[in-house]
Design goal:
The radius of gyration is 24 Å and the shape is globular. It has 10 helices and 19 strands. The longest helix has 15 residues. It is of the alpha+beta class. It comes from Tepidimonas alkaliphilus.
Length: about 375
Amino acid sequence: MQQLGKLPGIFAVQRGIILSDAVFYNAVDGNERSPVKVVRHGVLGTQNVVGKEKDVKNPQRTESAKTEADANGLIVTFSLSTIDLRQSVYACSEPDWKSAVLGFIERYENSEELHELCRRYARNILNGRWLWRNRLLGRSITIQVTSTKYQKTIAVDALKIPFNSFGNYSAEEQELGSWLHESFAGSVDTIHVRAHLDFGMTGSIEVFPSQNMVMKKPDGFARSLYKLDRMSRHDLIKLVGETQADRYMADMIDMGIAALRDQKVSNAIRTIDTWYEGSGDAAPIPIEPLGANIERNMIMRPPSSANNLFYLLPRVLPTAPQAGQFNAEAAFVLANLIRGFVGSEKDEKQKTGGDEENTAKKRGRPPKNQNNDTEEKQAAAQTDTLF
């Protein structure tokens, strides 16, 4: 089998799935009424760790998102489209590599591997995995998916669709999978997704948009939530700085509209990797070049293994589908092309003017042996930069 050389100096693959943020709405008897607001407010909590001279009280400023008092459910919506996979490589300094990727996509365009990926994506859309913690709030969850191209809507009971396994797909999952497959193959579609969560009760219920990662938070600030239509910094400073009692409103501030960011939705949809070494009956993990899993705090496809993307890429690209045989390595590579990544390898000897041994020491690995391709894929993995 012909193998490609090391990764090009410039090699970047565009994301294949285009997503909007998922917006939260108050629901009354199944009808969407108004956006759910993110509110900044104060709370008097307690200390989890008490040290010397520590007060048991823990006053904080935090943000919460709650439905309105007369709501009995939550509606979350987002839209999804794809790119034609043949347009996925948008930067490559080696023509042979670009030709190899495009040839691989063309050979697998109608393969069982790509069909299976699309059915798995469909399952994770229809079972509501992308709702994350909010999924636990629904006594019942109805998900509707509408194709713009076909002008057709699929509706399912999300809680009846398997959550941690694949196979035995329903007619709805297969139909949505076929829409996605045709969209990846060039007949691009836009798909609208709507989830209705019935709480089984009426009241102001806390829901869970994405949480922002905030570096160097100020003392007393607990949590920042993701929001759309945000209040401007100028207006927030003015509001918080108001000292007149009759104009003071900083006890509770409407910060914007609650939403799940597209990255979080994408992570849930691509949680389909059951092919990593030692997976057995374990739950699927998100498609990642090195199998990085935040939930387990582990790398499931480490650089030292023979099943990470950068080891498999030059070996799998020259392959062709085999009738009646499912190639899990090809499916994994295809899924990463859909995920998008940057995977370049630079000639550090030329860049730094040092010899290969010194360069290897800087990377924390032995110098490359021409008869040992393991070192080549380790270098590729260590120089990867992800979206």
